[in-house]
Amino acid sequence: MDKLLKALVMDGEISVSVLETTDMVNESIKIHKLSPVAAAAFGRAMTACTFMASGLKSKEDKLYVNINGDGAGGRITVCGNGELFMRGSVANGGAELPLKPNGKLDVGGFVGKNGRMTVVRSMGLKEPYSGSSALVSGEIAEDFAAYYAYSEQQPTAMALGVLIGKDRTCVGAGGVIAQAMPDASESSLVKAENIIKSLSDVSAKIRDMGAEKLFKELFGDAEFTEYHPVYKCLCGEEYVKGILVSLGKKELEDIIAKEKAVKVNCEFCGKEYVFDADDVAEMFHV
Fold it and tell me: For labeling, which of 1, 126, 220, 226 is most exposed (least CB within 10 Å)?
């Protein structure tokens, strides 16, 4: 079971989160048939977005993140809500790249170093909140930290990792994220940054220890709140019908005339929806 553990440490000056997202990454690999490097990139993004979604105020609030880089993987999309139901897609999830000289997966090459990250939060207001920042490395953790610094003025440090086994499944995924609270002291900031910098093997630690033991190793007996994120698509027939209706009656009738049916594949879970002429007529109450 995946976990997100949140706490205040260092006399309440630093907010920390320890995430274990191995199950969500494996579900993503299964649904989208991700290559190892795609799984590593998407898994890091999913972990960071799960943390971001945990800051939503209500279960109905929604989060959308698009990472558009110039790498082999193309656009990465991750969505979630206040219940931590997460889902997403990768434009070129089957793309493969050679390993880097150090033997690690080339996430930066997959994502690309040139491009932008866009974050949209829909929180029941008239207008959703939207922010954007340039990618700085394509390694995901640095890009999210840069987004928080430039778009939200929130000092943030992240260690994210995804470890792929020989059978191309994920054996360990997650991360540790630290954010400064208002008026945090310089000493607390430095201490938190040093903890994050020490976690170059965070995915192996998640594999070997799990989120709770890693939390205790890093932050002792601090009390934490535990959440359980899951990969869960929120598509459904009525949701898809609503999207189709927005295309207009004539557009759908033209598709029916050419293809005999309107077929829609959900980009997040792969489920196919098929509607015939009678279904289209019913959508418009004819």
Answer: 126
